[in-house]
Structures are given as structure tokens and as C-alpha cells.
From TrEMBL:
It is found in: Cell membrane. It comes from Polaribacter batillariae. The lineage of its organism: Bacteria, Pseudomonadati, Bacteroidota, Flavobacteriia, Flavobacteriales. This is LysE family transporter. Keywords: Cell membrane, Membrane, Transmembrane, Transmembrane helix. It comes from the Bacteria. It holds the Pfam family LysE. Its main location: membrane.
Amino acid sequence: MFFLFFFGFVFSFLGFTLPSVLNMTALKIRLDRSKKDFSNFTLGVSLVVFLQAYLSIYLIQYLSKNPTFIEILEKAGIIVLLFLSVYFFKQNKKEKKQIKVYRKNSFFFGVVLSVLNMFAIPFFSGIVALLMSYNMTNFDITSTLYFVVGAVIGAYFILYLYGRFAYLIQQKTGNLTNNINLILSFITAGFALFTFLKFVL
């Protein structure tokens, strides 16, 4: 069972490592506010990650019985990703204003941003599908908990590292934290292109 915890931890850690709204916001909160605010934010994110990882397991089990539906979702996903790319491009200079909206409740802000993270469930579903394809688990209750707990700790740990080394990251990245939406615009456009190529090649 430990390997399920390990996979959950590693893939979640790697999945949240790349620049995203969540870890860049965590970085800014640590730089601009107190350690308590930062901790509350990461706890809010972690709570939602638990629910997202748990839901992903049952979602992929259902979708595995309906392959045609999965293909439809992938095609629809191309359109969604393109819209997101345009949205993030237009919102490039507004992230600081968004952060100030929830200054009084970092935990709730973490919950909201994590819920709005549209890539979490597809990401965890992909990991679950990979494990199931190799018959590494049938995801009974015990296996599910091992994987989900590993995923939550992995996400929490990478956010903790962003906060722990916030000032060093700021020095190394310069204006990166001020341009996160532009980065996300390129990331989502890249995912859209990659998904499109799967159908035409």
C-alpha cells in the first residue's frame, strides 16, 4: 500500500511544482503577509486537493467504462483550454488585485483558488488511470486513502517549500510572480495544442 502513498505524493508534488496560480499566490502571501496567513492558505488548498483526488478516483472508474465519453471530453477540453488561454492573457496584470480581495481570510481564499483550479481533477484522474492500466491497484477504500493522503501531503509540501524559500525565489525569478497569468496563458495554449495534435496525427 505504501507505493500508492508514494505515487500520490510524487505526482502531486511534481504537478504543483510548475508555476501556477496556487503556488505563485502562496509565494506572494508569504512575501507580503504573515506566516499564519500563509499556513491558512495552504491548509485551504490542501482541503480541496483531498476532495479533488478522492473524486478523481471514482470519476476515472466511471469513465473507464465509457471510452467514447472520454474522447468527447478531450475534444471539448481543447475549446475550454483555448478560452482559458485567452482569459489568462487578458488577466495578466490583475493578479495582485485578486489577491487583495481575500486579505482577511487566507484559508477561504485557498479553498476558492483550489476549487477554481480546473486542472486538478483531470490531472489526478490521469494518474489514477495510469495506475489502473498497470493493474497496480483496484482502489478499494484503503488503497484510495493511501493515494489521496499522499496526494494531499505532496501538494502541501511543495507549497510549503514555495513559502520556505519565498525570498530566494523572488530574487531568482525577478518579475515572474507578477506575470503568472501570462505564463498560464502559454501553458493552457500548449495543452490545447497538444490535445489537438492527438486527434490529427
